[in-house]
Amino acid sequence: MKTMWKAALLAGAAWGAASNLAVAQEQATTEQGVGVEEVVVTARRREETLKDVPVAVSAYGAAALERMGASDITSLQQSTPNLTLQVARGSNSTLISFIRGVGQQDPLWGFEPGVGLYVDDVYIARPQGAVLDVFDIERIEVLRGPQGTLYGRNTIGGAVKYVTRKIGPEPELRLKASLGSYDQRDFLVSAKAPIGDKLAVSFAAASFDHDGYGKNLNTGAEHYDKDVATGRVSVEYTPTDALFFRLSADTTRDKSNPRHGHREVQALNILGQPIPGGEVLPDVYDTRAGSGDTNRVENSGVSLLGQWTINDLITVKSITAYRSGNTEGTIDFDELPGAYLDIPGRYNDHQFSQEFQALFTGDRWQGVAGVYYMNATAAGAFDTVVSQINTTIATAGNVDTESYSAFADVSYDLTERLSVSVGGRMTRDEKYGRVYRQNFTGIRSPLFGNNAAVPGLLRSSFTNKKTFSKFTPRLSAKYEISDDLNAYVSYSQGFKSGGFDMRSDQILTPNSADGYEPETVDSFEGGLKGYFFDRRLSLNTAVFYSKYKDMQVTQQTPVGASIASQVLNVGRAHMSGFEVEGVAKLAHWVSANVSLGYIKAEFDEYKALDLTSTPPVVRDFSNSRVFQNTPKWTGNFGLNFSHDLGDNGSITFTPTASYRSSYHMFEIPSALDQGSYWLYDASLIWTSAQGRYKAALTGKNLGDERYRIGGYNFPQSAAVFYGNSVSAFYGPPRTVTASFEVKF
């Protein structure tokens, strides 16, 4: 608690000083026209200015994302406090996300994320294909801390909201082309047009391509390349002033080559001798993987929004959506031509969701209430191929989920300055799981084309059904210190339901068929938001303290030729820290952006089955376990210079620097852990006087930093059959992109 008290004292001092500034600023005089732009968000399912929302929120509009050079949503981790948003290990478009220490590293089907991803208020249930490219977008919001009341499913750590552009009253055609490093070739075309007074249509199509940052030295294929095509179409219908409908559909296809990773140590055979060609390659983007160069990820969805404004007090909404996805690929854990540890796999999922909302607005109160339903299936199969003993372990199964919930959140103004909010959500999840796991003699099983493989020991074959229910409350109070400054305190609880481990091995872990239980987070937060110096400075701060209970942790322990997988409710932990985000308008031609996040996350209890002991026993590992993907410090600083060229348009220059302190890849420290590093970016954008033309030059990772974003750790000391497979995946190297855009 010492860190929390220190953070609270610092925040109290800052808030006290800020309160005095808020009063004093009424006496200040500033240069005419200089001020920070006000930001509008929908964090509480209704439009509010950022300072009025008693939630820690980071918001990025289309212009800010362009200045950042954000190609996909993982760019947000460089500028958002206490956020990890990265491409998952061994994939091109699977997302892992952590906020304030809460998330989900393992993207296997049936596991659910700890940070909810929403596209136009539609929940995306699976991480495959969730590394969303940034195009034709209005804004992205990152909500930190549990958001169980309004967003419900799996927002125990927070939520990321991706909001696409709406159709405006004027027709528009936009063309954009980008060329850059590694033969980057990105193209975008979008069009929006009203058809009469009541109907409007829009579409956007984009392709994103670049060569690999490295090579597969075994096959000659590109490695860390990109080959993505995506499209979106919308139809808006407004039959009356009170009714609005929006039908949207999207599809994405990713045919980038498999991302195998980089071997970090010398490969060893079963006798502990070096494997020829198994040395550490000098280029971290190169590999010698031999499990294949075929990869395909497809995702598509359709949604229908209906909105009826009954009167000035009540508006009702209906959000209906269906999504599906398929993934076929392979992960070469050993990074060698031979199949020392190869994992070919496939996934498929689909989900249907229906949400009804009622928004209420009165003189002194406002709120939202609703119900939510989701029916989803996630299925898949993979082989664990171990060639040194001519063995394959085949794994397959599925998880069906039906989720029901009802929610409400109401705010009431007790006085002109003081308001309180009360919310809650009741969730009921019904899950049905089926798991199959069996040994085969041979390289690959019949699941992946080897019908000659000889079936052996049946390791798992079970079905089970479990139901999880939880009520999660939220309370907050907000006080307007002045017209430009608000302070708030809040309590919220997050909940993620339990489930079944698709890797369950009933021989090694007999109780795994029983599944694992839900986890919860109780979070206490206080914040100060507002403007200072006659709106020259916007500042948002928060301090938080969270109790994490019944944590779900995936633990994989090599046992002979097999891997014992356990998803365990290991115990308890606590997290505390603070966050600061600010924008300062230094003059009419220059502004500064800054963000800073600090978190201290520690296990209080970590009870797990120690499979390395004989017989296996339950031990408390809390003194030797750490939080994964949770750097203690995150920070960002940027400047934005703008200059009006008169009839020749305007130009902006935006240099930025971001920092992440050292962090761990897994709960057990390893050689794969990443040290602290800085990333330096810059963009130069010219816009014509009428806004019709735009040209940009963007540089990312200008210091050409090499930093790990994931890895697999199966060293020889733990498993002699796996070729001493310790591999890592790296963030992009230095890239420079030139783009040109024209609007008609």
TrEMBL record:
Signal peptide interval: 1-24
PROSITE patterns: TONB_DEPENDENT_REC_2, TONB_DEPENDENT_REC_3
InterPro entries found in the cross-reference section: Beta-barrel_TonB, Beta-barrel_TonB_sf, Plug_dom, TonB-dep_rcpt-like, TonB_rcpt_CS
Domain TonB-dependent receptor plug: from-to ranges: 50-159
Topology in membrane: Multi-pass membrane protein
TonB-dependent receptor-like beta-barrel domain sequence ranges: 285-702
Compartments it resides in: Cell outer membrane
Entry keywords, A to Z: Cell outer membrane, Ion transport, Iron, Iron transport, Membrane, Receptor, Signal, TonB box, Transmembrane, Transmembrane beta strand, Transport
A GO cellular-component term linked to this record: cell outer membrane
Motif TonB C-terminal box location, chain numbering: 727-744
Entries under Pfam families matching the protein: Plug, TonB_dep_Rec_b-barrel
Gene3D superfamilies attached to this UniProt entry: TonB-dependent receptor, beta-barrel domain
Keyword Cell wall biogenesis/degradation applies: no
Biological process per Gene Ontology, one example term: iron ion transport
Family label: Belongs to the TonB-dependent receptor family.
Listed PANTHER family: FERRICHROME IRON RECEPTOR-RELATED (PTHR32552), TONB-DEPENDENT OUTER MEMBRANE RECEPTOR (PTHR32552:SF81)
UniProt protein name: TonB-dependent receptor
Species this protein is from: Caulobacter zeae
